[in-house]
Task: inverse folding
């Protein structure tokens, strides 16, 4: 089991460029999440998908879009990158979308926007 | 939205018990409390989760008082490998939408 995988590991973009961060899980989990982590701060929820076919906004969704491609894959897209989106992005998955469900995190994507 | 507050850093020595407290004054009735551990350049890893009173697993204990406005992660007999950042999470899942509020993290340094 690879758990949660993310690609790429590192990315540098220029302001205005677009890119898609990929995430996949092999644990047959129903729910998936995208977070960003800025230096010295906790994680903030960008978007989540409670189950295949659904997506919802989290705390900081502006400037991002997501696609739940299938049960395994959940991608995050930046349409027009801005320096404020420089961050480390983590994808996570959980068995279900409820309070008692543990989240499993990927290794992260470090994104720099210049 | 439950705001979560943690100490920024703590120091300890090997073999000691470490207690990290998280404050979440606005916690709602159905919110769960979870603690995660994060090493540099890695994603957070689940430690323990609870709703009320005390929960214990093989690595930690979680104490939650009756009013649930705070929670304390207890790590017994820490070792150097416990040096990491610890996050508390207050999680609310309902049809109105998820609210997952992480604290800012507590950087634990374990010294020999």
Result:
């Amino acid at each position: 089991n690879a758990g949660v995988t993310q690609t790429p590991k590192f990315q540098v973009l220029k302001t205005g460029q677009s890119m898609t961060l990929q995430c996949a899980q092999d644990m047959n989990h129903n729910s998936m999440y995208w977070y960003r982590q800025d230096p010295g701060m906790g994680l903030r929820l960008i978007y989540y998908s409670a189950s295949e076919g659904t997506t919802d906004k989290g705390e900081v969704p502006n400037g991002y879009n997501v696609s739940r491609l299938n049960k395994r894959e959940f991608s995050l897209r930046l349409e027009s990158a801005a320096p404020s989106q420089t961050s480390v992005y983590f994808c996570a998955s959980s068995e279900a979308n409820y309070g008692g469900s543990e989240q499993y995190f990927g290794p992260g994507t470090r994104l720099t926007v210049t | 939205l439950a705001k979560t507050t943690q100490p920024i850093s703590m120091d300890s020595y090997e073999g000691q018990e470490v207690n990290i407290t998280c404050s979440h004054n606005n916690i709602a009735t159905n919110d769960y409390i979870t603690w995660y551990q994060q090493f540099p350049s890695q994603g957070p890893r689940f430690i323990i989760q609870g709703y009320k009173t005390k929960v214990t697993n093989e690595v930690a204990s979680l104490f939650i008082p009756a009013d649930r406005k705070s929670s304390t992660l207890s790590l017994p007999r820490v070792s150097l490998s416990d040096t990491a950042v610890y996050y508390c999470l207050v999680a609310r899942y309902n049809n109105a939408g998820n609210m997952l509020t992480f604290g800012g993290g507590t950087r634990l340094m374990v010294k020999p």
Remarks:
- The radius of gyration of chain A is 13 Å.
- The mean pLDDT of chain A is 94.
- The CA atoms of residues 36 and 89 of chain A lie 4 Å apart.
